[in-house]
Design a protein that fits this description.
single chain, Rossmann fold, 6 helices, 40% helix, binds NADP nicotinamide-adenine-dinucleotide phosphate
């Protein structure tokens, strides 16, 4: 366990991709990171990679759709550290798959509601319940930073067609950002959404334009905002982004 003042960060869906990079960078700043993943073996292997680099990272299993698991995590944080300073709601799925020809993205005209429901479970209800579980610990210490991984595909201003599951869920997480931020005013808990850009991960694919550090940069910046920093905003490349 670190010193009483060492900050504690939780990152969801961190066994690979942007979440893993966020863990690496936060730990590189001396923050104790609880790397979580739904699959234990994958999460432990990812964690070992970082501890092998001498970074202060530990593993905790968490499927963001599992309410009991979320409570087990918050109980652990409370008993072990009495705090949770940073939450990065990174876990996400892109459930809208192309048609059999591989050409067309799914249309809202015939998309299955189950696809949208799956996206909402992981990308909205998950972050909502994980946030609900850790906010009391943040309030108790009058300090918190919550970063919600959103996407330009959830931007209402420039909303395009197709992929309704992912789009609706990312608009949903943006709404969560605003609601949590409003209700947490006065507690020094800053809640923001960010878009990482198009990043080379399993979700982004090999054609993506950004490497992991660029994708993680704004999330790490928001996770370490100074007191009095912005809250209830949407960012990309550390700049405010239209909702
Ligand atoms: P990724 O490589 O596909 O990683 C997604 C992570 O989420 C994986 O670790 C996955 O775990 C985890 N996950 C999925 N469902 C989960 C659940 N129920 N509980 C816990 N973990 C779960 O994707 P990424 O590109 O790093 O994406 C990270 C975040 O950035 C997502 O929220 C995504 O929407 C957002 N984003 C990405 C891009 C991009 O271009 N890559 C663009 C905009 C926004 P498993 O390994 O077990 O599947």
């Amino acid at each position: 366990m670190g010193s009483a003042k060492q900050k504690i960060a939780v990152v969801t869906g961190a066994n690979r991709g942007i979440g893993f990079e966020v863990c690496k960078e936060l730990a590189g700043l001396g923050i104790r990171v609880v790397l979580t993943s739904r699959k234990e073996a994958k999460g432990r292997a990812a964690c070992q990679q970082l501890t092998g680099m001498g970074l202060p990272v530990e593993f905790h299993q968490l499927d963001v759709r599992d309410k009991d698991g979320i409570h087990r995590l918050s109980d652990y944080l409370k008993s072990q550290y009495g705090r949770c300073d940073i939450l990065v709601n990174n876990a996400g799925i892109f459930p809208d798959s192309r048609d059999a020809s591989g050409d067309d993205w799914p249309s809202v005209l015939d998309a299955a509601v189950d696809t949208v429901r799956a996206a909402m479970e992981t990308n909205v209800y998950g972050p909502m319940q994980v946030s609900q579980a850790v906010v009391p610990l943040m309030m108790a210490n009058n300090y918190g930073r919550i970063v919600n991984l959103s996407s330009g595909m959830g931007q209402l201003t420039y909303m395009g067609g197709h992929c309704p599951g992912y789009r609706i869920s990312k608009t949903g997480i943006n709404a969560l950002t605003r609601i949590f931020s409003e209700e947490l005013k006065g507690h020094n808990i800053l809640v923001n959404s960010m878009c990482p850009g198009w990043v080379k991960t399993e979700m982004g694919g090999s054609g993506a334009t950004r490497e992991l550090p660029e994708g993680a940069d704004t999330a790490v910046w928001l996770a370490t905002l100074p007191d009095g920093g912005p809250s209830g905003k949407f960012f990309r490349d550390r700049k405010e982004f239209e909702w």
